[in-house]
Write a structure and sequence with these properties.
single chain, alpha/beta, Alpha-D-Glucose-1,6-Bisphosphate, Chain A, domain 3, 4 domains, 7-stranded mixed beta sheet, 6-stranded antiparallel beta sheet
Length: 481
């Protein structure tokens, strides 16, 4: 690894380089020339001798991946290009080949965006504190200098390898679906990479797959490839009901996230899926550790503990969770955003493996999915509520000041501000990329959720420095006798 370089006072890529990846508008914020610089910087910072690359179906992705490869090979590294793949398929290649990797995708963002998700060998993430900051600094310096550093005398070689069949075979060694009852499943690929991977992964299984928007199209002609937005699963819900299907699956653009709807077309919360998969993993490995981020339902740690496992609460974000997976030797981790992490998959997130677990669990039972997941529906929740504010830190401080001295309340700042009462909690945290505050509320009753939501939003959006009038404030007293 090279020594840190001085930061250029001119070029600033802070709008392009995020906390966990590179992401921005093409060609306004970055282009193939920038991608070539990232390839050279990635090799210099990681010391990689060989790099594996992959890309999604966006129009700009193949060119960006080729440019990155030019930069990497000019610095002496070989590049193994896997071509079209999902992000977890790239993680598979990085893990099984023990190579650093770079995936070109902007996940669920609109068509004009693209990005790079980078990892070290074994799918270990590259984030701000694990190399991304150094990569950005080099790219900034070289941009000001008018180009990359001189090529080495012996450049690396570019080769191509399709990993789809091997990826699918590996997933199917982790979850056995051969003995399940026949199921009908509607899969909405959102014109993203699930349209490429699902036919191979699910081939030959006792499944009647109804494909929805499997055509690869980075313009996303039917809906955004973000299944957490209710507007983007309307077609899936309708089709599940029309087909009389057992369940529906929706994937985001790079297919590393999976969202589930039941036989009624009703959304199944990612927290419920986290609990369901956690029980399956704990059944195989009794007493193991399972991670959950602090936005998942309180149901999740309750279910883990009831099954004899150890629940560990983490910050939001894949780089934090993957690091904690390694530190705690957890077998599984889940996020409210429908990212699911598996020790058997190099601690990386894979929506496809989570989907296989859901199919296996449902296929082993006679009842509908709604009956399997009703045990995990213990609390009411607000969902994530975003507020655009001028000064997010000041608004968080105002909310903290209004709540910190109330009896029966605890406050922590693991990720933003979390305030917890006897049968409720809320979390208020800033976005990593926008001047937004994100609020999540959970409580035993919908009435308490609404009261908490309104009181916090009053402070956040109205800019108030005191809480709402006492008549509107939620009680902090323990309602149980």
């Amino acid at each position: 690894m090279t020594a840190p370089v001085d930061r250029s006072p001119h070029t600033d890529l802070s709008a392009l380089v995020k906390a966990y990846d590179v992401r921005g508008v093409v060609p306004d914020q970055w282009d193939e020339g920038t991608a070539e610089l990232f390839g050279a910087a990635f090799v210099q910072v990681t010391g990689a001798l060989t790099v594996v690359t992959g890309h999604d179906m966006r129009a700009s992705s193949p060119g960006l991946a080729r440019a990155f490869a030019r930069g990497a090979t000019a610095q002496g590294a070989d590049v193994l290009a896997t071509g079209l793949c999902s992000t977890d398929q790239l993680y598979y290649a990085s893990g099984t080949l023990d190579l650093p990797g770079a995936m070109f995708t902007a996940s669920h963002n609109p068509a004009r965006y693209n990005g790079i998700k980078m990892c070290r060998a074994g799918a270990v993430p590259v984030g701000q504190d694990s190399g991304l900051r150094d990569i950005r600094t080099l790219v900034e310096q070289w941009t000001d200098a008018g180009g990359p550093p001189p090529a080495v005398p012996r450049p690396g070689a570019l080769t191509h390898r399709d990993t789809l069949d091997d990826y699918a075979a590996h997933l199917r060694t982790l979850v056995d679906l051969t003995g399940i009852r026949p199921l009908k499943v509607v899969v909405d690929a959102g014109n993203g990479m699930a349209g490429h991977t699902v036919p191979t992964v699910l081939a030959g299984l006792p499944l009647d797959v109804v494909p929805l928007y499997f055509e690869l199209d980075g313009g996303f002609p039917h809906h955004e490839a973000n299944p957490l937005d209710p507007a983007n699963i309307v077609d899936l819900r309708r089709r599940v009901r029309a087909e009389g299907a057992d369940l529906g699956l929706a994937f985001d653009g790079d297919a590393d996230r999976c969202f589930v709807v039941d036989e009624r077309g009703e959304p199944v919360s990612p927290s419920a899926i986290t609990a369901l998969v956690a029980l399956r993993e704990l059944d195989r490995r009794p007493g193991a550790t399972v991670l959950h981020n602090l936005i998942t339902s309180r149901t999740v740690p309750e279910v883990i503990r009831e099954a004899g496992g150890t629940a560990v609460r983490t910050r939001v974000g894949h780089s934090f969770i993957k690091a904690e997976m390694a530190r705690t030797r957890a077998v599984f981790g889940g996020e409210h955003s429908a990212h699911y992490y598996f020790a058997d998959f190099w601690n990386a997130d894979t929506g496809m493996l989570a989907a296989l677990h859901v199919l296996a669990e449902l296929g082993a039972h006679d009842g509908p999915l709604s009956s399997l997941t009703q045990h995990f529906d213990r609390y009411a929740a607000s969902g994530e509520i975003n507020s655009a504010v001028d000064d997010p830190p000041a608004r968080i401080l105002a909310v903290r000041a209004a709540w910190q001295d109330r009896p029966g309340v605890t406050v922590d700042e693991l990720d933003g501000l979390t305030v917890t009462g006897p049968d409720w909690w809320f979390n208020l945290r800033p976005s990593n990329t926008e001047p937004l505050l994100r609020l999540n509320v959970e409580a035993r009753t919908p009435e308490t959720v609404r009261a908490l939501r309104d009181e916090v939003l009053f402070l956040v959006r109205a800019g108030g420095s005191v809480a709402m009038p006492p008549a509107s404030r939620v009680s902090t007293a323990d309602p149980t006798p």
